[in-house]
Amino acid sequence: MINFKNEIAKAISKVTDIDVKELETYIEIPPNSDLGDYAFPCFKLAKTLRKAPPVIAAEIKENIGIDGEIIQQIDIVGGYLNIHINKETLVENVIKEVLEKQEKYGSSDIGQGKNVVIDYSAPNIAKPFHIGHLRSTVIGGALYKIYNFLGYNSVGINYLGEWGLQFGKVMAGYDMWKDEYDFTKNEIQSILKIYVRFCQEEKEKPELTEKAREYFKKLEEGNKKQVETWEWIRKISLENYQKTYKLLNSKFDSYNGEAYYNDKMDAVVEELRKKGLLKESEGAQVVDLEAYDMPPCIIITSAGTTIYATRDLASLKDRINKYHFDKAIYVVGNEQRLHFKQVFKVLELMGYPEYASRCEHVPFGLVVDKDGEKIGSRKGNSIFLEDILKEAIQKVEKIIDEKNPNLENKEEVARKVGVGAIIFNDLSNSRIKDEIFDWDMLLNFQGETGPYIQYIYVRTRSLLEKSSYVPELEKLDFSKLQEKEAIETIKLLYRFNEFVENAAQKNEPSIVARYLIDVAQSFSTFYNEHKIITEDKSIQHIRLALTYCVGIVLKTGVELLGMEMPNKM
Ligand code: ARG
Residue 37 contacts by C-beta under 8 Å, 6 or more apart in sequence? Predict the structure, then answer.
């Protein structure tokens, strides 16, 4: 496909003798397409060329030799060159490329041979499943797919929180109260209740905390009974999570969680000691980070146990050895910002500055209701993600029953739309913002939602079906697609890959989500203004080709976000 920016830069380079790559970075897209398709700010060259921007603009325009094939017209406005490209060339390029590449359209191989380790989801077993883990699961899952689409090898790691004092609490509670709870069905609920009760009671009885410590210590030492209980709780928790992961289509290449590193931490502690990084502070062993404006990173507590940071260092070393990663991404809530800054700094000080620079914490905001109140924060109110997803599906089923009761595969459609609505809601705004969770909003078929995009896609399908459309390149007359709205849509399709790459670079799936809204809205404007099925068959054919291409991009795009596309709804 023609790279228009590059072609324009090449043409300008010929007359200015400035490097193409440099010129390319200056080219902008005007806010309003009436001004042109691309704009070149000549003031960027004023210093090098020692001329005033309007003079530069006039000289470039004069000498560039407008071929009509790629550049059709150049206007000078202020110090800008406003460049209009040949629309027929654009239309032909986009449609040919989409038809040829199909669901690979928009992909690239910039990541070939590079591993990206993505640490996401990572719920804390035995603790209530926090709704924040839904965000991590959804954002991480989208990044996983986006990186793969760009040729990287994504490695998804579910670093389960299945170690630590919370286990001591559950086990101690279980031993004391197990007869009071029903373990014949929904064991996990009972485990949770025990955990929540323990946390409440220990406030009045500090000796309970001591007891939990003993239990956890026994587990760390490999006591047979504790290890068995631990394995059982891990197993039933994982089984429970799998139901959610299945609905969300989440895939992990590894479930090595915190426990996996239990016997790998001595080596890290030893390495830190050898490198002279450990120092004693109030009975604990810490790495001093004062020089970096951070509190010390605790490696061994005063009670002699390792902690979260120690395990993260051990897992990082393991990931370096196993994956020689090009990037290591941690999709974890904003409240752990300091933790990751500390861990990455310690890794650097340990002598791995290169790898430390490839680590990135990808934080995200809270989930709040429409009044801004944090969801899932009420004590003991454990929200099961599976329940939220099921509720979404039920709500969509109800909508279908009202609006389209004879729809085939109702259940499947409801699942794709319901789950898609939740995923899209999570990804549609920049991740650092708090996510507003409001049923009416996220299920609004007219809003900037997942269901809206799916609905527009379904419209493309039915248009294509109605006219029994099969893409045939030979039959296309590219000059017949001229309407402003159609060109806007084509221009968006042209830039698909740019948005995907940008999303990866910023680890921001919302860039793809917003893009899909733009594509859907742009196409919808087109077909509201212009009939696609018309008298003139050559016009109809090219409009259907556009419809087809929009469908491919929408489907590929939502799948990158982890959603599924229904064919009817
Ligand atoms: N289980 C942790 C939590 O929920 C998140 C783990 C994130 N990953 C990591 N390598 N620390 O708070």
Answer: 4, 29, 30, 83, 84, 85, 90, 491
